[in-house]
Amino acid sequence: MHYFSRLILLSALLLSVACAPQRTVTQGPYAEKNSVARVAIQQPANKELADDVLFRAFGLVGTPYKYGGNTPESGFDCSGLIKFVYSDTVGLQLPRTTGAMMQTKAPVVPRNQLRSGDIVFFATSGGRRVSHAGIYVGEGRFVHAPSSGGTVRLDSLDSQYWKKAYLQAKRFLPEQQLVSNP
């Protein structure tokens, strides 16, 4: 029964992300006057990479938390989950700790420009020192391994707790690209 409830939850989460509206830019720096309009894709240049990251992260929801854990069999802590998902899906070897991930040279993303696959960082102990991270999945939600006794789960960036602890986000997947729109 546990398997089927996880499968139903995963299906519902995937459906809600897949059905999210996508916005296009038809004016500003991505549109050209007196020419064929150019549209900025709101997905990474290789949408399959972001999809792979999301599907793998969603598939790990319910995996037990384990400090220092970095595999589905052993359980995960927050950085172990992120490192595993990125390595397993796109072959990207990220650092093992949230502090080292945040120090990695990658574009910092404003909160209002988050895209699926971005890594969100938090200071759960107060101050400005990173102590937690998760994978942004869209619609203001992220997947993470929260704490001892818990499991990998989906949470909202807009909850009071996460809103207060939010530090920044970084993009480790390719940037958006421009395509012609006939």
UniProtKB/TrEMBL annotation:
Pfam families: NLPC_P60 (PF00877). This is C40 family peptidase. It comes from the Bacteria. Keywords: Hydrolase, Protease, Signal, Thiol protease. Residues 1-20 form the signal peptide. Belongs to the peptidase C40 family. Coiled coil: none annotated. Residues 47-173 form the NlpC/P60 domain. InterPro entries: NLP_P60_dom, Papain-like_cys_pep_sf, Peptidase_C40.
